[in-house]
Structure formats: C-alpha cells, structure tokens
Write a structure and sequence with these properties.
This protein is of the alpha/beta class. Helix content is 35%, strand content 11%. The protein is built from 9 helices and 8 strands. An 8-stranded parallel barrel has the order 1-2-3-4-5-6-7-8, surrounded by 6 helices. Helix 6 links the parallel strand 5 and strand 6. Helix 2 packs parallel to helix 9, helix 4 packs across helix 5 and helix 7 packs parallel to helix 8. The longest helix is centred in the C-terminal third of the chain and has 24 residues. The protein starts with 18 loop residues before the first helix and ends in a 27-residue tail after the last helix.
Length: 329
C-alpha cells in the first residue's frame, strides 16, 4: 500500500502536510482559498527559483557549487553580503566566470552602509538609519561599486537604500549601467506592506527581499499590489529572526509567486564583512545552506509541490512598473 505521507493526491494538487492522518481524527485543515493564490509568475512561466545567500568569495562559491552538484540542488542565484568593495577585481572576475559556467546569477552587495560607518545612531536601540547610505559620499560609494562590478561582468546588485536604488535605476536608463543589470532589495530594509513594496518596485527594484516574519496573508496582500519577484528566506539567519519555514514552502510559493526560495541558516554567527579570519565558518555554513536547500526541495517533492520551478539560467524579472524618469536637460 502506498504511504499517504509520501504521495500527492491523484488530481495533481499538492498534498498538505499531515492532512490525511488528521482527517481520520476529524481534524482536517480547511481547504485553501483559490483567491489567496498569486496570479503572477516569472516571464519563463515558472513560479519559483532558488538562491544561496552569503556566498562571500570565490572559495565559498566553489564550496556551494561542489555541494550543489553533489546534492543535486538546482541554483538560480548566489548572493554576497559583504559588498563589492570587500572583493578584489580578480576575486570578482573569478566568481563571474564560475557562475557563468553554471549559468547561475551572481549578485553582489553595493557599497558603504550605515551600520558600518561612524554614525552612532545605528548602535542605539532604535537602530537609527540602519543600513541606509548616510550622506552623499556613501551614495557615491555605492554607485562606484555598481560601476566597477558591472564592468567586471556582474549583472545583479544588492541595494539597501531607496536613494541608491533610484540613482542606479536612472543610471541603468541612461546606459551608464548595462540595460540587463538587475537590482535586488536587501532583506535588512525589505518592505513590510503592499504600498511600500510597490514603491520599491517603481524605484527600480527587480526583486525584493521581504522580512521572513511576514504572514501568508501579507504575501497575498503584496501580490495584489505588485508582480515584482519576491525573495524570502525559508530559513532566516539569526540577525533576521532565525525563522525556519520549511513546512510552509509550498504555500509560500502559492501565495508569493514569482518567488525566490532563499536557503539561509539559523544558529550561525554573522560573517559580514567577510575575511580570511572567518574562513572555516564561512565554508562550513555555505555547504550547510545548500544542504538546507536539499531538505526544502525534498519536502516539496514529498508533497507533490515541486512543479513550477523556473528553468535553470533564468534571471530576468519581466515587465515591471516604474516611476517616470525625470527629463534630462
């Protein structure tokens, strides 16, 4: 007899965790509301992609690529958190080449941020301006990082400031940055409501990392306001709450598509800004993030919810809404 805990319903709909067993106890969960489902997808028709975050340099990238091949974890994107300015040209070039060989998108963080500069307010309980770029020089540093990275072949940039995003979007429109450059909003400034999500999209964001403590209902609300791709830590690092939402992965996809499943790691120390003094921790945690991804993908497969993944190599977000650009003098 087939094990009902490992098979999906014959009609092709995903199996809900524990539903059959609970139904025998008279405690079946309510049926999902079709009105909660996202009507959107990636331009390739997929509803989800994968991302391995905190890949801080060529050695960590090599560990991720090796482990993803061993565990057969498909990877659409890898992202780095320390920043372009923490990598040499040779290191960036090596990462660009390794990702190109696997048709994986490489995303690097732009420039100075408030939590690292001399502003004392970021050390207070209120957090001050947080990661945002303080002053003209910090914005200029982020722009410099973007120009340098794209000239070395990087096509995706992480941003943590609205002004920086708007500046980079305008530079992209002017041709100062390649037209196919994409901008990803950091989880540390991610929008928490549909109105702010739509604003970030219109400022030039091509994917937006929402905080991992948003509810399923919040995802549905956002999807009624925007179709811009959403990034979400299925397991969040401790400085983002340490949430582990593996059993919600299928429902997160259903409500949040188009969605990047980010395989983070709780219970591990922060590694930004990365250096050789953190090498062993960084490599071990990089490998474990891939393993966490394998656990999520296995869970989706057991529930018959693993369909709809974008083809590997897909990276563009599709047509998005933007604010009108100012006329040039």
């Amino acid at each position: 007899m087939p094990d009902p805990s490992r098979t999906a319903p014959q009609d092709g709909t995903p199996r809900r965790p524990g539903a059959a067993a609970l139904a025998r106890l008279g405690e079946a969960p309510p049926e999902p509301d079709p009105g909660d489902a996202s009507p959107h997808s990636f331009p390739d028709g997929g509803s989800w992609r994968t991302e391995i975050p905190s890949v801080e340099g060529p050695e960590a990238l090599a560990a991720v690529l090796k482990e993803s091949a061993r565990l057969e974890v498909p990877v659409h994107r890898v992202s780095q958190g320390s920043g372009v300015w923490m990598l040499t040209d040779d290191e960036i070039t090596e990462m660009v080449g390794a990702c190109a060989e696997r048709d994986i998108e490489l995303c690097l963080f732009t420039g100075p941020r408030g939590t690292w500069d001399i502003g004392a307010a970021t050390r207070t309980q209120s957090g001050g301006g947080g990661l945002r770029a303080r002053g003209h020089d910090a914005v200029a540093g982020c722009v410099e990082d973007a120009l340098r990275a794209t000239r070395l072949g990087v096509k995706c940039l992480l941003v943590a400031d609205e002004g920086v995003l708007w500046a980079l979007h305008r530079l992209r429109a002017l041709g100062e940055l390649p037209a196919d450059t994409t901008f990803k909003v950091s989880a540390l400034v991610g929008p928490v409501n549909p109105a702010s999500y739509a604003v970030w999209e219109r400022l030039g964001a091509d994917s937006l990392n929402i905080p991992s403590d948003l509810t399923l209902a919040h995802l549905t609300e956002i999807r009624r306001a925007s179709r811009a791709p959403m990034d979400l830590y299925i397991e969040a690092p401790d400085d983002l709450g340490g949430y582990v939402r593996m059993y919600e992965a299928a429902e997160l996809i259903r409500r949040g598509a188009p969605l990047y499943l980010k395989f983070g790691l709780s219970k591990t120390p922060g590694i930004y800004p990365y250096g050789g003094h953190l090498r062993d921790l960084t490599l071990a945690s990089a490998r474990e993030r891939v393993r966490r991804g394998r656990l999520v993908l296995d869970l989706l497969a057991r529930h018959g919810a693993d369909g709809g993944m974008s083809p590997l190599g897909s990276r563009l977000p599709g047509e998005l809404q933007r604010f009108p650009l100012p006329e040039r003098n």
